[in-house]
């Protein structure tokens, strides 16, 4: 059996490795048009800011590693131009030599990932303007910062990557401005929680413009649609990503509601022997069961593993995504999982929310307040989502909430969890338990 995988970052290499563990005889080949494979994209901002000194630590596994350990042939700088499901053939271009040739497959896996969205901004092609999606982008940005020493940076977009790079640029001494076209920063957070992030950014001397789009970039400034000019000699466009689906769609693979590749829970597309995984697919939300597009490294690894299992005869199925995310912003941590209040209302739930402000550990050992927003359904009492803004310990609480939501916990279940307690780590009644109590009290009023 010949298994061909298009794309070699998280999902593609996970699929290849799992397929090899299941089948020692299969011929497995991975094509990737980039130079780097299996890299840790989430670590990129920390190299840019100098916290990580050696960028090579983000690319620990090259083609040689996969050949030696798994007997998998990985061809970088090779672009798949077209695929034909009837003949099970692929048109390949070697980007290093320009040579084109035809390959064949028995099983085909699309792990083509996503690419940065380029907003229609005049001047977006100037030399001081960057997007950040892969290792090559990282090195280009780092070289520019080291060689040109810009003083004023503008980040267009306030998602996770934009805010992580904001911290990195401030660490390098740049004056930083954020531009967000939506009414609040950090898309994914409800406005009431995003307000805490915005206030914190301003306390860190990061200027924030909301509800306005960038219209033009010149050699010295970013011009907003309302005419505001922001001085800038470095610009990062961090306005989201879209799935790479062109080759798959041209082949006849069906796209879903989100315009990403539509797959079932075993990563099968509508075409026989054709699968897809990672940032190019849509997945079911664990709560609503409706398709969503959530390009995350954790999801890419899971769906890649499932694809590798299924193409070799296994029976793994994907259960769904909660959209869990977490990132550091200077000394604070922002985390979220499940449905926001707005999303829960849209999904038809009778929504109850709470805002719980409690210390992460006892005050006499330096406890620091964390703000937890809980979202629940009044009828079923099920916990639907959580958003947290705080310092140390946000990750611990977030993962407890993720587990609770995944196993359909009700708000009163949170009180009964036998969580670890010791003064250096928590309060005797943990903020998780408090969140459950507050929501239960609100629900029980009626």
Topology of helices and strands:
Elements: E1 2-6, H1 10-22, E2 27-32, H2 44-48, H3 63-70, E3 73-76, E4 78-84, E5 89-94, E6 100-104, E7 107-110, E8 114-116, E9 129-130, H4 135-148, E10 152-156, H5 160-171, E11 175-180, H6 191-203, E12 207-210, E13 214-217, E14 221-224, E15 229-231, E16 234-237, E17 241-243, H7 246-251, E18 274-276, E19 283-284, E20 291-292, H8 297-311, E21 325-329, E22 332-338, H9 341-346, E23 351-359, E24 369-377, E25 383-390, H10 394-406, H11 411-416, H12 431-444
Parallel strand pairs: 1-2, 1-7, 2-3, 7-18, 9-16, 10-11, 10-16, 11-12
Antiparallel strand pairs: 4-5, 5-6, 8-17, 13-14, 14-15, 19-20, 21-22, 22-25, 23-24, 24-25
Explained architecture:
The chain has helices at residues 10-22, 44-48, 63-70, 135-148, 160-171, 191-203, 246-251, 297-311, 341-346, 394-406, 411-416, 431-444; strands at 2-6, 27-32, 73-76, 78-84, 89-94, 100-104, 107-110, 114-116, 129-130, 152-156, 175-180, 207-210, 214-217, 221-224, 229-231, 234-237, 241-243, 274-276, 283-284, 291-292, 325-329, 332-338, 351-359, 369-377, 383-390. With 446 residues, it is of the alpha/beta class. The strands form 7 sheets. It has a 5-stranded parallel sheet. Strands 9-16-10-11-12 form a 5-stranded parallel sheet, with helices on one face. Strand 4 and strand 5 form a beta hairpin.
